[in-house]
Specification:
By secondary structure, the chain is mainly alpha-helical. Helices cover about 50% and strands about 5% of the residues. The protein has a domain of about 100 residues. Strands 1-2 form a two-stranded antiparallel sheet. α3 crosses α4 and α4 runs antiparallel to α5. The chain starts with 10 loop residues before the first helix and ends in a 5-residue tail after the last helix.
C-alpha cells in the first residue's frame, strides 16, 4: 500500500527554509548541483528562456541536473508559444475569420497557443517561477542561539 498524506518536501527546500527537518533526513539522495547545459535542439527563443530560468534557479540556489528534462520541456513550450505568436501577428483581427456562409470563427492557431500557455503556466508553478509559487520556495536565515528568543520558547529550562 502506498504512503499516506502529502509528499515529503524536497531536502534542498527544507534546507533553504532553515527547517530542523533537514537535519533529520539522513538517507535523502542529494541533488547533483552541476551546471545545466542547454539542449542543442532548442531554437533561439527556447535557448533565451533556458538561460533566464537557469540564472534564476542558480540565484536561488535550487538548480539541479535532475531538473534538466523538465526544464527542457518548459523551454520547448516557450519556443512553441513564441513561434505561434509570431505567425499569428499582433493584430487581433487576424485571429478571426469568416466561413463561406458568413459565420465567424477563431483561427485554430489561437486555440493551440492558448493550450500551450496553460501548460506553460503549470510548468512555471512547478519551478516556483510565479509570484505565488516563488513564495513557497524561498530561503530563510536560521536564527542565532540567543536572538531574543526566550529560554521557554526554545524548550530550555530557565536558570
Amino acid at each position: 500500500m502506498g504512503e499516506r498524506g502529502p509528499p515529503k518536501t524536497p531536502l534542498h527546500i527544507l534546507e533553504m527554509r532553515g527547517s530542523r527537518l533537514a537535519t533529520d533526513r539522513k538517507n535523502e539522495v542529494a541533488a547533483n548541483k552541476s551546471k545545466l547545459k542547454c539542449p542543442p535542439k532548442l531554437g533561439k527563443h527556447g535557448k533565451k528562456k533556458w538561460k533566464e530560468i537557469v540564472a534564476d534557479l542558480e540565484e536561488r540556489e535550487i538548480n539541479s541536473t535532475t531538473w534538466g528534462s523538465a526544464l527542457e520541456l518548459l523551454a520547448s513550450l516557450w519556443e512553441r508559444i513564441a513561434l505561434l505568436s509570431e505567425s499569428l501577428g499582433d493584430d487581433p483581427r487576424r485571429w478571426k475569420g469568416m466561413t463561406d456562409k458568413g459565420y465567424e470563427y477563431i483561427d485554430p492557431l489561437v486555440a493551440e497557443r492558448d493550450k500551450l500557455e496553460a501548460q506553460y503556466l503549470k510548468m512555471l508553478k512547478e519551478f516556483g517561477l510565479t509570484p505565488c509559487s516563488k513564495s513557497d520556495v524561498k530561503g530563510s536565515k536560521v536564527p542565532a542561539k540567543n536572538s531574543g528568543v526566550s529560554a521557554r520558547n526554545r524548550g530550555e529550562k530557565a536558570s
